[in-house]
């Protein structure tokens, strides 16, 4: 079927890398919309034009601002079960983790499935069409966590980079997590290979890809980090970890390894373009330059960074040095939501506070959530509205009171606080219609998830 998304109120197309509000392309020869066929974008229809060939269906987009589907580069789906948990609020990262690890150790497969389903649905409703989840918690009974996530993403029809996370240093080894949620190196590496062999799809438009994601320098051994590099090269997959999130992490690396986190990363063979890092806040000038020269990506998580007061990511310097910068919502116990469109606004605000109101625009924030995020995940088939790209679209209306009086539709999405897509298309198929996910009973999901979450409050 050839479908014409006709006459949008505004559309974000073209390469906005490095652009500001004067240089970015907000029409890009697609003022009359786009034509979708076979799951891809096959034509941009310019001002005063009609589609080059007959179409089978027309969608009137005159009320809609059209963006590429948003791409989330860092999350912890299981944490939707412990939002605003009384044991963890008003704490910085390390105390926050120490408070929640014992709670998370009670995670069950049933609870994890509901947490995954809710997080994916929440992301989708915000306009996100591709997501990465960093799952590193494996208490007894949750060995099939990756299989559960693939099943849930596939059922929803959403793109997902399933990151097989890991921890093998517990409290008895000088790490933070309790013994009950870590695994030994051989178990981890064996399952990494299993998950890669079974699910990793590098084909154009593939829904499921796999990345390997040792949790952080203070929760894994050197061998696990280096062996993960070997598996990534063998299976052509991405690598992910937390790095540079807090000053406590710097102190830990200096005390245990005699170097700063970036130097440690380089020692382990992780300084290459397969890698994207979560947070990446506390880098000095030399480290920013080294990361950029190796094209190491950074997932900027503005909401979580502000909630935990971790610091401010050096987004502009990283991009200037060549490092891809994407956006992540991070865990729903440090956000406390799974809404990437809200994250776009937060990214704009915290970066304006960092660099100045004229140095960071809504185009920058939108670019991080689309093109930049796609680069972090190693995908060149999504993240932009262009001929040949996958037909992944997020479409928003400006009908709410919050948008009344707005003059620039694209800027209004960010400045006025859009948080819910009216329509979402993924590979040419509607996944959200009239603000609701297709085929998902949201009310039932809320009840089932809320019931599962209650068990994490039982010990209070």
Automatic annotation (TrEMBL):
The keyword Hydrolase applies. Transmembrane segments: none annotated. Pfam families: Amidohydro_1. The keyword Amino-acid biosynthesis does not apply. It comes from the Bacteria. GO terms for molecular function: 8-oxoguanine deaminase activity; deaminase activity; metal ion binding. Gene3D superfamilies: Metal-dependent hydrolases, Urease, subunit C, domain 1. Residues 65-414 form the Amidohydrolase-related domain. NCBIfam families: PRK08203.1 (NF006055). Belongs to the metallo-dependent hydrolases superfamily. ATZ/TRZ family. This is 8-oxoguanine deaminase. It comes from Microbaculum marinisediminis.
């Amino acid at each position: 079927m050839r479908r014409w998304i006709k006459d949008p109120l505004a559309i974000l197309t073209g390469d906005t890398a490095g652009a500001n509000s004067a240089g970015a392309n907000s029409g890009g020869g697609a003022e009359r919309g786009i034509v979708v066929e076979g799951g891809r974008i096959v034509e941009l229809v310019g001002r005063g034009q009609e589609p080059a060939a007959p179409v089978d269906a027309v969608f009137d987009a005159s009320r809609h601002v059209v963006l590429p589907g948003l791409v989330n580069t860092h999350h912890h789906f299981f944490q939707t079960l412990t939002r605003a948990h009384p044991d963890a609020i008003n704490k910085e990262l390390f105390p926050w983790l120490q408070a929640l690890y014992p709670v998370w150790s009670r995670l069950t497969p049933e609870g994890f499935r509901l947490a995954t389903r809710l997080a994916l649905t929440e992301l989708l409703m915000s306009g996100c069409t591709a997501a990465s989840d960093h799952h590193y918690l494996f208490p007894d009974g949750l060995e099939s966590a990756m299989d559960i996530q693939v099943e849930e993403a596939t059922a929803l029809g959403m793109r997902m980079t399933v990151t097989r996370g890991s921890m093998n240093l517990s409290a008895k080894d000088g790490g933070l997590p309790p013994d009950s949620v870590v695994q030994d190196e051989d178990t981890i590496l064996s399952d990494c290979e299993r998950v890669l062999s079974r699910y990793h799809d590098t084909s154009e438009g593939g829904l499921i890809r796999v990345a390997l994601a040792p949790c952080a320098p203070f929760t894994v051994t050197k061998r696990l980090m280096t062996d993960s590099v070997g598996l990534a090269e063998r299976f052509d997959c991405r690598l992910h970890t937390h790095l540079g999130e807090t000053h406590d992490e710097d102190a830990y690396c200096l005390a245990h390894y005699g170097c700063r986190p970036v130097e440690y990363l380089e020692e382990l063979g992780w300084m290459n373009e397969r890698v994207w890092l979560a947070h990446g806040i506390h880098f000095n000038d030399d480290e920013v330059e080294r990361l950029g020269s190796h094209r190491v990506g950074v997932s900027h998580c503005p909401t979580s960074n502000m909630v935990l007061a971790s610091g401010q990511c050096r987004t502009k310097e990283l991009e200037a040095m060549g490092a891809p910068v994407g956006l992540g919502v991070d865990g729903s116990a440090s956000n406390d939501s799974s809404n990437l469109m809200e994250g776009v606004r937060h990214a704009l605000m915290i970066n304006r506070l960092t660099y100045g109101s004229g140095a960071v625009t809504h185009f920058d924030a939108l670019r991080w959530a689309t093109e930049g995020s796609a680069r972090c995940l190693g995908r060149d088939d999504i993240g932009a509205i262009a001929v040949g790209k996958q037909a992944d679209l997020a479409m928003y209306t400006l009908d709410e009171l919050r948008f009344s009086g707005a003059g620039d539709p694209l800027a209004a999405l960010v400045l006025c606080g859009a948080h819910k897509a009216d329509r979402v298309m993924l590979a040419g198929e509607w996944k959200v219609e009239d603000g609701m996910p297709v085929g998902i009973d949201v009310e039932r999901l809320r009840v089932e998830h809320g019931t599962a979450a209650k068990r994490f409050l039982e010990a209070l």
